[in-house]
Specification:
With about 270 residues, the protein is of the alpha+beta class. It has one domain: L,D-transpeptidase catalytic domain-like (Beta Barrel). Helices cover about 20% and strands about 25% of the residues.
């Protein structure tokens, strides 16, 4: 069973909790019916379960433009996200969050400076990373972060970034990750300086690509295949006997290589 299929089952089983405890996202575009039949076994009895039964876990489904935070196997927060454009796709990966950085600065990559004319942005209200950056342990320079462009979360299609993931509910997510109140997060931001707060325990973070996914009500939703040309090209290469590239082996499309030392971020 693919891990995302197991996630579908878990989300349906926990749908009753979502209405009471989660930050909801915009209505889905196309619902195809309940994700599981009434006589299906409980989610925690299914093989291949990828959501830990204990502790914290974060799932980002790229084509759904959504982040879900789990506590002890149950979803406790949902957030809209902005993901990478088809030209600069967000990769599928399994990582871990180890710290939350407040008031980050932002340094564009040399390619972004050369081709897009972007420049360094100091911490503050105009920073593309917003006020919060979630530091992830991975070699693809991908992370989650706040943003200064809040209006983009109102769009239905949100494949708009350079590859990292912008989180609408960044403050609630930071409070949950650190085990503090939202008011404490505001005080941390209010210090104005750039600094990181390590998590008491690293939180697993899974970025997946599944166009059929359960919504907050346990209904399977069909999302647009935003990286269709990427997936089609990869399938064609494999059908013709061409070996997958290192980037495809890592679970994401070939595209502009991420320059080491900084994530494209915004």
């Amino acid at each position: 069973m693919r891990p995302t299929r197991a996630v579908l089952t878990l989300l349906a089983a926990a749908s009753a909790l979502l209405n009471a405890a989660c930050v909801t996202t915009e209505p889905p575009r196309t619902a195809t019916g309940p994700v599981r039949a009434p006589d299906s076994p409980p989610a925690d009895q299914r093989a291949g379960m990828s959501i830990p039964a204990r502790g914290k876990f974060i799932l980002v489904n790229i084509p759904a433009f959504e982040l879900i935070a789990f506590q002890d196997g149950a979803p406790v927060l949902r957030s809209r996200v902005v993901v990478g454009r088809p030209a600069t796709p967000t990769p599928e990966l399994l990582s871990s969050m180890f710290a939350v950085k407040f008031n980050p600065d932002w340094t564009p990559t040399p390619a972004m400076i050369r081709y897009e004319g972007l420049r360094y942005v100091p911490p503050g209200p105009n920073n593309p990373l917003g006020r919060i950056m979630f530091e992830l342990d991975n070699d693809q320079l991908v992370y989650l972060h706040d943003t200064n462009e809040k209006a983009l979360f109102n769009r239905a299609e949100r494949a708009l970034s350079h590859g990292c993931v912008r989180v609408e509910q960044a403050r609630p997510l930071a409070a949950w990750a650190l085990g503090v109140t939202p008011e404490e997060i505001d005080r941390m931001i209010g210090q104005g300086t750039t600094y990181s707060v390590p998590l008491a325990e690293a939180i697993p973070v899974s970025l997946v690509y599944d166009t059929r996914f359960a919504d907050a009500h346990g209904q399977v939703v069909v999302h647009p295949d935003i990286y269709a040309s990427r997936n089609g090209a990869a399938r064609t290469d494999l059908a013709q006997g061409a070996p997958p590239s290192p980037r495809e082996q890592a679970g994401h499309a070939a595209g502009p290589a991420r320059e080491r030392g900084t994530c494209p971020g915004a």
